[in-house]
Amino acid sequence: MTRGLRGGRLSGKTALITGASRGIGRCIAEAFAGEGADLILTATSLEGLTEVAENVQALGAKCDLIAADLGDESETDRLFQKAVKASGEVEILVNNAGIYQGKPFEQYTMVELDRLMKVNVYAVFRLTQLAVVHMKTLGRGKIINIGSTAGKWESANQAAYNTTKHAVVGMSKCVALETAAYGINVNTICPGMVETDMFQDFEVHADAAGVSLDQLKEQVHARIPLGRFLQPGEIAPLAVYLGSAESDGMTGQTLTISGGMRMG
Ligand SMILES: NC(=O)c1ccc[n+]([C@@H]2O[C@H](COP(=O)([O-])OP(=O)(O)OC[C@H]3O[C@@H](n4cnc5c(N)ncnc54)[C@H](OP(=O)(O)O)[C@@H]3O)[C@@H](O)[C@H]2O)c1
Fold this sequence. Notes:
Helix content: 40-55%
CATH topology: Rossmann fold
Structural class: alpha/beta
Bound molecules: NADP nicotinamide-adenine-dinucleotide phosphate
Radius of gyration: 18 Å
CATH superfamily: NAD(P)-binding Rossmann-like Domain
Number of strands: 7
Strand order of the largest sheet: 3-2-1-4-5-6-7
Shape: globular
Number of domains: 1
Distance between the termini: 43 Å
Number of helices: 8
Order of helices and strands: EHEHEHEHEHEHHHE
């Protein structure tokens, strides 16, 4: 498939998507392919990316896979260099990869905080830096960071995770300010509760409530105005919009999509 010949709102663009093996990142990859983008997909292992690669290729996308542990700064740099080498131009960066760990505040160790910071903040910061340098040479670019409602509001028993997501929201706005003059848009999507593997890490909340994970899910449903978790595919259309020319007038924004959980 020759670059740019497929139709769609992202036709002719190449996107680098982190955390593309599962959950929200995988859905964004498939939605981007459906809108004509070519893709560079990354996760910790190539095996984890096989299925999504087959799906996006079936939609006509050119797709390169790169394995990288984003907890390791040298791998983050290597990832971006390989991405540019593979595609020539990376016009969209989706910083989606993330990890979760919940605990009562005083029980977090500094090693645990460091691990969360490395994947959720340092990798996002560094990839954004590398992308900004590259996109300035292109004179355009879209950076889409996946934050969280945990990056805008308080939550019990996950202070370290919320710290990382608040950092992503803050960084995105600062970078948006510095890059607007170069045709680069930087926005953050803040999902609420989305039904992915990440929910399996919510035992601490189930324990705190004295219920099972399934019972916790029911309790959370009751607190969401729409009455349910979102599906990862419901986040992807917002990412498509932010990757497309339709959002050229939007930068520095923090967009919540949460079934109405937290408003404003
Ligand atoms: N699910 C929610 O309710 C929710 C809500 C708000 C925000 N978010 C955010 O949305 C993003 C995606 O979450 P999700 O729910 O889709 O999570 P998920 O299903 O657990 O998927 C996480 C993805 O990140 C990748 N990843 C994890 N650690 C990595 C590392 N060290 N290096 C490289 N890649 C790594 C995983 O790759 P491997 O396959 O290699 O492990 C996987 O592709 C995260 O930033 C998360 O914080 C999620």
